[in-house]
């Protein structure tokens, strides 16, 4: 009898696994490859950093590209470089720029996007990359920073998406991407204004993905970690010590590496793009109820969520330790400074 059970138990486990896999397979949306050639792509925040590299990657895949930002000089410089890249391909691709405040009046934004569509054809791809971060302890940030962060990081994507989505639904084709952040999956010290806006993007993308399924319009989210951009270098100048120590643990990636990874996921019809080993682990852990189109990814997320939760708790403990250590050191420095002042007074 015991020998029979030794044989049957593995068979039963395999059958249950197979049944579970089939349930997942028939539950997840079908994954559709996306083809770039001759498509018109719009990239907000496209004059620098990840946005510029996304635009360059789209050109290499055969797209006509419109880049959107505020600074005219940066746009002109970026557009010249991108057009040169396009000309080298010999595919008669076009690149243009639009100077827009993506936090401004929606009607102005809509008119500019319509103008772009008239010039380079219907907008097939929208990558919402506009945004920046501020970092400081919560009580040191002015309330206006919270309002500005929500406008530039979240509402700008809402406005741009609203400007293109009706036409995509009508034509039953298109792709919309949102550039979130690892800070939109994992909140750490100093990001009380920034992280919520990136979490909001994920919530918006999750919901929009479901609404657009019947129209065959793809939606994707990119979660970049620390990336070696001009903006990140500026952030480092004012970044709190705690934030910098925590961020250092995730490493630093090039904008091209991040952009190439996301464009590959767009082409493959995947929903989420994570970067590096830490990013992959965090993506599996925080997948939760977010959309998933890859059976392989779904099985890995299901199998390793518990393990990755345990690992993340260790990370959280390490980060909490950094916060306490920096706090104690500041208290000690203040005490030493106070004692030094008292000593000078006694002299």
Secondary-structure topology with pairs:
Blueprint lengths: L1 H26 L12 E5 L4 H12 L3 E6 L2 H18 L5 E5 L6 H15 L2 E6 L14 H29 L3 E5 L15 H18 L5 E6 L6 H9 L2 H8 L6 H14 L3 E3 L1 H10 L9 H52 L1
Parallel strand pairs: 1-2, 1-4, 2-3, 4-5, 5-6, 6-7
Helix pairs in contact: 2-3, 2-9, 4-5, 5-6, 8-11, 10-11
Any idea what the CATH architecture is? 3-Layer(aba) Sandwich
Overall mean confidence score, pLDDT? 91
Succession of helices and strands? HEHEHEHEHEHEHHHEHH
* CATH class assignment: Alpha Beta
Count the domains.
Answer: 1
The N- to C-terminal Cα distance equals 92 Å
* Class by SSE composition: alpha/beta
Helix residue percentage: 55-70%
Q: Unreliable segments (pLDDT under 50, ≥5 consecutive)?
A: none
Which fold name is given in CATH as the topology? Rossmann fold
Number of strands: 7
Strand order of the largest sheet: 3-2-1-4-5-6-7
Brief synopsis:
The chain has a single domain (33-305), classed as Rossmann fold. The protein contains eleven helices and seven strands.
């Amino acid at each position: 009898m015991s020998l029979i059970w030794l044989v049957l138990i593995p068979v039963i486990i395999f059958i249950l696994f197979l049944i579970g896999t089939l349930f997942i397979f028939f539950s997840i949306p079908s994954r559709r490859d996306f083809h770039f050639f001759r498509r018109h792509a719009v990239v907000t925040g496209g004059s620098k950093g990840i946005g510029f590299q996304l635009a360059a990657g789209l050109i290499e895949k055969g797209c006509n590209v419109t880049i959107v930002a505020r600074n005219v000089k940066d746009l002109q410089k970026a557009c010249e470089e991108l057009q040169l890249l396009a000309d080298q391909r010999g595919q008669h691709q076009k690149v243009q720029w639009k100077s827009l405040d993506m936090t401004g009046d929606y009607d102005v934004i809509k008119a500019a996007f319509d103008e772009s569509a008239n010039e380079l054809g219907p907008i097939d791809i929208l990558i919402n990359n506009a945004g920046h971060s501020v970092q400081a302890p919560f009580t040191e940030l002015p309330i206006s920073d919270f309002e500005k962060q929500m406008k530039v990081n979240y509402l700008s994507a809402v406005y741009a998406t609203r400007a293109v989505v009706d036409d995509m639904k009508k034509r039953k084709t298109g792709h919309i991407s949102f550039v979130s952040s690892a800070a939109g999956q994992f909140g750490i010290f100093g990001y009380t204004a920034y992280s919520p806006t990136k979490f909001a993007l994920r919530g918006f993308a999750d919901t929009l993905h479901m609404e657009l399924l019947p129209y065959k319009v793809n939606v994707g989210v990119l979660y970049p970690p620390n990336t070696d951009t001009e903006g990140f270098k500026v952030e480092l100048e004012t970044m709190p010590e705690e934030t910098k120590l925590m961020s250092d643990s995730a490493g630093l990636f090039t904008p091209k590496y991040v952009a190439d990874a996301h464009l590959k996921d767009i082409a493959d019809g995947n929903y989420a793009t994570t970067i590096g080993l830490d990013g992959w682990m965090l993506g599996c852990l925080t997948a939760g109820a977010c959309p998933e189109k890859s059976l392989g990814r779904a099985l890995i997320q299901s199998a390793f969520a518990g393990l990755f939760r345990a690992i993340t708790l260790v990370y959280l403990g390490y980060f909490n330790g950094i916060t306490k250590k920096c706090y104690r050191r500041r208290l000690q420095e203040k005490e030493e400074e106070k004692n030094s002042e008292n000593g000078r007074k006694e002299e």
